[in-house]
Amino acid sequence: MEDKQSRELRLEQEEEEEHAKVDVLKYVFGFVEIAVVKCAIELGIADTIESHGSPMTLLELSSALSCDPSPLYRIMRVLVHLKIFKEKPATQLGPKVFAQTPLSKWLLKSGQNSMAALILLESSPVMLAPWHGLTARIQGISNPAFEAVHGEDVWSYAAANPDHSKLINKAMACDARVTVPAVIESCLEVFKGIETIADVGGGDGTTLRLLVEACPWIQGINFDLPHVVSVARECDRMKNVGGDMFDSVPKADAVIMRWVLHDWGDDECIRILKKCREAIPEDKGKVIIVEAVIDEKDEKEDIKLTNVRLMLDMTSNVFLSISLSFNVLTTYETEPMDGS
Ligand SMILES: C[S@@+](CC[C@H](N)C(=O)[O-])C[C@H]1O[C@@H](n2cnc3c(N)ncnc32)[C@H](O)[C@@H]1O
């Protein structure tokens, strides 16, 4: 006869098998979530409800978006299931309505908290195609998968394709608008005493603009590839300089790099850091790195953030040279170089 312990173990295994039967279907249809969210952004569903000023019925929404109500309803049903929008029950006076949630507001096409550009970048055909080369990449058969598909690395491709470059810059800017104020608020001490700072790989200058606005004692240089800075915005106490960080970095009291090193392998990171070291004063220079860090030993980590860090690391693996990822602000005070 089965004892209590064996019975419990058997029931636990049966339960796990039941869950697995359903869980595996996530991988059959996983791509649909991204496609539906992308569609919601492209249609401007969140923007339409926002400018309407109150929740909308299906007919109001379909008329505002010039869509057939039936397919729109099916998209809305998924978006409600994903808790991106809320469906509020019908009242005596009218039918059910669709309302914004904190999550749908991240899908607005513009504004302080918009992540739309980053979602549109990552779900663009250009960025999705390389994922088909992940296996070959892991087996070491191919170059970074982006190069294998597009024939050149991400940055050369962006230089030759202004629309894609614009999408990258917009995507980076929307993330910067969210993370940079948090970095400044929690690490203001780091920026005290810095008179000039170069943002290396600074994109369209959003990070630096937020920094000089919050720290009026700082003058900034936004440094990036020439095709990027040629379309970057100018603002007070900040200028744009084009160049290649593997050749040299503009001289300043400090260098900041946000989301740059994770794009490169160890050898390239060392070359970039040496150029940063040459650009700052011997005795009091700073290199400030803002990155995602995977801490495999931290068992108390927020599981959702760990998920984001691991996924970000996979994008580095597919698109670029191999690297680990970081997510904290780290500063290195300068020390005399020993030539290594
Ligand atoms: C992931 S983006 C980060 C943008 C920006 N730091 C931010 O946080 O929004 C990486 C940036 O590095 C720039 N970059 C790539 N290669 C470069 C190079 N050789 N010299 C200077 N910038 C480079 C890219 O053009 C891009 O703007």
Automatic annotation (TrEMBL):
<dbReference type="Pfam" id="PF08100">
    <property type="entry name" value="Dimerisation"/>
</dbReference>
<dbReference type="InterPro" id="IPR012967">
    <property type="entry name" value="COMT_dimerisation"/>
</dbReference>
<dbReference type="InterPro" id="IPR029063">
    <property type="entry name" value="SAM-dependent_MTases_sf"/>
</dbReference>
<feature type="active site" description="Proton acceptor">
    <location>
        <position position="262"/>
    </location>
</feature>
<feature type="domain" description="O-methyltransferase dimerisation">
    <location>
        <begin position="26"/>
        <end position="110"/>
    </location>
</feature>
<protein>
    <submittedName>
        <fullName>Uncharacterized protein</fullName>
    </submittedName>
</protein>
<dbReference type="GO" id="GO:0008171">
    <property type="term" value="F:O-methyltransferase activity"/>
</dbReference>
<dbReference type="InterPro" id="IPR016461">
    <property type="entry name" value="COMT-like"/>
</dbReference>
<keyword id="KW-0949">S-adenosyl-L-methionine</keyword>
<dbReference type="GO" id="GO:0032259">
    <property type="term" value="P:methylation"/>
</dbReference>
<dbReference type="GO" id="GO:0046983">
    <property type="term" value="F:protein dimerization activity"/>
</dbReference>
<comment type="similarity">
    <text>Belongs to the class I-like SAM-binding methyltransferase superfamily. Cation-independent O-methyltransferase family.</text>
</comment>
<dbReference type="InterPro" id="IPR036388">
    <property type="entry name" value="WH-like_DNA-bd_sf"/>
</dbReference>
<feature type="domain" description="O-methyltransferase C-terminal">
    <location>
        <begin position="131"/>
        <end position="311"/>
    </location>
</feature>
<keyword id="KW-0808">Transferase</keyword>
<keyword id="KW-0489">Methyltransferase</keyword>
<dbReference type="Pfam" id="PF00891">
    <property type="entry name" value="Methyltransf_2"/>
</dbReference>
<dbReference type="InterPro" id="IPR036390">
    <property type="entry name" value="WH_DNA-bd_sf"/>
</dbReference>
<dbReference type="InterPro" id="IPR001077">
    <property type="entry name" value="COMT_C"/>
</dbReference>
